[in-house]
């Protein structure tokens, strides 16, 4: 709760103005019953029209003032809520961005989507309505009770006898609603995850003609969602209707007791009428309390989810005294490196040295750990044993952004953002000029593609680059790398999606790019890495062979030779 209230701190002024106006709005509602009292007991018997008009004008003024206050409460109150919602969302997104790859390996994107949208909207509503409505309600109840007391103490107490019961019922249902909404939240999250997954994979669904099966799954989830929602609404309906009944009991109590006291001469007709009207005003704060009680579980569940993610500590952390990685020579050492994904051990005591400017290729069977070996260098994951050094310093001693700025990775799965060609290429250097972007595009053999589009660099690539071919996407990621210009390169199957002719051209470009840079190449097609300074064969037993293409071919019964023979057997 302390964390929640800390979000109000920057908006103290807004909060107090909103609160003040809200209380005025609540209390000024009491003007009407009081004026009615005055009308019936004083003004009507006197027959003085001047006073009647004067009192009516006074009431009109109160209403005009209250209208203005209403505007402030509704607009500024929601401004407070939306400001807090925005701040929490910014904090959450900033934190999510800092989390490590392992978190994303194990977290559904749909869940994060729910956290960032639905959950926080509920938190925003609670932030605004929660304290404000409760406070208005309490103040209006106290104000009403005070006015009632000043008119007739006994009747005031009778009128309020039921109020505690209404509050007890509200608290009882609040507990039930909290549980129901927690379940509902989890369903929304499942739902978002499914939509994200299945709509993202719609091409696969259609290719396998699996629409009916997916529709069945969707129906089941949708039905579970409906059932959970209905459960929550049932509790809500029970709460609203029982509160309604109790509130109407208050009116009946006042009617009976008020009639009695009026007949006894303890109450004037005007006071009796005022009591009845105040009992109607009482409903408003009680309904507000009820509304907060309905809102609260949503908001609290949303905020709890937010704090859960905030408590996630990134596996990969920057040391306090980390230094920036600058003037990189590109000397890399893997020293007895051990690593595993959770329980699964992938790398065992790997040691290797890569000299500045060298191109080292990793080949070997699928799943042996080549990609993992490279992913440890930019610290997407941290080693569980041993260490990796760049230019003699452990990579954990460098600041994370400078380490990653100096390492460029062209991956097997190219991710393009929905946007233009320019946006995607310039992602490597957001402040790049058009000349620089064109230069990178030319080097990545993309010029003819860009020139072929009427809108050139402003061509929209579609979600995840769906309007481009695999080879084109790969060349865009290579163009990005030309712009980023890092001293250390990781090319993970960088040319795998290219036809042989384009591959040769790109290979030339990549050779140019890797000149003077330390380059780690992961490749299955041996033709692309023949000229590497050294080739390492990685298997489940670690690095089993190392040498130049020729040296490795000459090893009798060698693994590299076997891979080579298998690839060239039919050529
Ligand atoms: N994020 C992950 N979480 C858990 N296990 C993983 C993860 N990424 C890879 N693995 C596992 O680690 C092992 C090594 O995977 P890696 O991708 O490094 O192999 P690779 O040699 O690059 O394979 P390929 O040549 O097919 O790309 C595999 O068994 C794989 O299933």
Automatic annotation (TrEMBL):
A GO CC annotation given for this chain: plasma membrane
Family annotation (SMART domains): AAA (SM00382)
Keywords for the protein's UniProt record, in alphabetical order: ATP-binding, Membrane, Nucleotide-binding, Transmembrane, Transmembrane helix, Transport
PANTHER family from the UniProt entry: ATP-BINDING CASSETTE SUB-FAMILY B MEMBER 10, MITOCHONDRIAL (PTHR43394:SF1), ATP-DEPENDENT PERMEASE MDL1, MITOCHONDRIAL (PTHR43394)
Domain ABC transmembrane type-1 positions: 16-298
Recorded GO MF terms: ABC-type oligopeptide transporter activity; ATP binding; ATP hydrolysis activity
Stretches that traverse the bilayer: 12-40, 52-76, 134-151, 157-174, 243-261
Membrane topology category: Multi-pass membrane protein
Cellular compartments annotated: Cell membrane
Organism of derivation: Lacicoccus qingdaonensis
Sequence ranges assigned to domain ABC transporter in this UniProt record: 332-565
Domain of life: Bacteria
Gene3D superfamilies given in the database record: ABC transporter type 1, transmembrane domain, P-loop containing nucleotide triphosphate hydrolases
Name of this chain's protein: ATP-binding cassette, subfamily B
CDD domains: ABC_6TM_YwjA_like (cd18549)
